[in-house]
């Protein structure tokens, strides 16, 4: 597969995700209008905008999970580390392996904590490669990276769906780590969490920054401001403004951005 | 167990009050009508319990005299000698009938479970919407075929087919009955199994697909574990259906009291025995009463299977 191998060529530019003239229709409704952008590698980029502006749709294009629904039509290009993910030779399985996703409601699988973390390895690696020690190491590393190892190491066999929401969401991030994704997409990952949980996830995002290209959709402008390097403001399926987060919030160029950031609508 | 649908409750005319109700007060007739209606509905709900206990009581009453006075339980359960009409030496051993019932049911389940669950998985997870509707209608149609028609198919289609394919002298045997029972219990497994899979939240599918799992990996690693209680209940209800089935097995299994040594041996089941002999036994005679005791046995088996299925489904709701 090519997503991984093509990445070396574009390393210097530091571009993680690039779209060109991306349009998307749900049936007759056009949800994305000629979206052209480039998201920098290794940084946290937030997508903001009022409900229905297409930010979640755009996020879900990056791993093509939109295509589950038969009535979605897409034109244009998305290049992730230089490779157009809509090329016919791209395998969805490999694409999704290298682009992890975290959902709005924590959705750990109805399996044990341990099995949740090794799920990616089990589906992507042949059984012969998965010795017990290897799986154990992967679990310790992944849970360690999200700060759950000490809390959960004694009950790895208990069902993941019984954890607190914050731990569930961290687990949903941890389960991406063993297959070594390059991009992590987050769709309002904190909207089901309380203040403490939100803080914990944001801290986790900062600790993952640099190793993964992180794109986060958020409704919460304060969160975008606290927890991202760059921000993209979207309205009615179009990109209005894409700049460093401080610049976008402190002196927006576009009138519409200024009004949204001030809270006049949304 | 399911309650039967409330019969006429909804169709009772409510508008007895033709007087002019002024102000906030309702006419006495309307208030009365409502409370009557409430009682009718309550009665419909309770009637299911009454029916179940009524049937159990009736069956028990017919058999209980002989059960505690005269029937040798050891012989009943452990002898294969079923000679209820012998003049010199009457023997009531139902072991062969019990083995007959379980051999036919067991083989039927070996055939029906993979088919039924496979069809449930296909209909729920792999099928396009248009196909799904068509398939569901067809599968439900399968459930609507009367069991005597199945028996007819057993005699006229399966019988020569089994003779020819397996080169056996008689085609009315365990295999024939099991094939029919399998076809009859597949629909219930498909519809309940599909419900169980549909009840798995979509977020699990999405999580799995977004990790790069294929649809089949998602089914095997996520949906089957998540829906396992519901699927087990589907199987058990299929078993209950098969144990209780009478007419098709009566016609297709050869009706010989016999412990089968291979799927090609004829057998006789508990249900078929009751159906075939009750009409000829004189009311109140020991033979008549023994048939009712077999009824109690059957009732107990299906009750246990249904109860387990119910408890298993409750387990789904909790976990």
Q: What is the H-and-E element order of chain A?
A: EEEHEEHEHHHHEHEHEEHH
Number of domains of chain B: 2
Average pLDDT, all residues of chain A: 88
> What is the assigned CATH homologous superfamily of the largest domain in chain B?
MetI-like
CATH topology of the largest domain in chain B: MetI-like fold
How helical, in percent, are the residues of chain A?
Answer: 25-40%
Characterize the quaternary organization of these chains.
Answer: heterodimer
Written as H for each helix and E for each strand, in order along the chain, the element string of chain B is HHEEHHHHHHHHHH
- What fraction of residues of chain A sit in β-strands? 25-35%
Biggest interface between chains: A-B, 28 and 19 residues
Strands in their spatial order, largest beta sheet of chain B: 1-2
Q: Kindly state the number of beta strands of chain A.
A: 10
Provide the structure class of chain A. alpha/beta
Radius of gyration of chain A equals 19 Å
CATH T-level fold name of chain A: Rossmann fold
Q: Can you describe what's shown?
A:
- The complex is a heterodimer of chains A (266) and B (319).
- Chain A contains ten helices and ten strands.
- By secondary structure, chain A is α/β, with parallel strands linked by helices.
- In chain A, strands 6-7-8-3-9-10 form a six-stranded mixed sheet, with helices on both faces. A four-stranded antiparallel sheet of chain A has the order 2-1-4-5, with helices on one face.
- Mean pLDDT of chain A is 88; it is low at 1-12.
- Chain B contains twelve helices and two strands.
- The two termini of chain B are 21 Å apart.
- By secondary structure, chain B is mostly helical.
- Chains A and B meet through helix 2 and helix 3 of A and helix 7 and helix 8 of B.
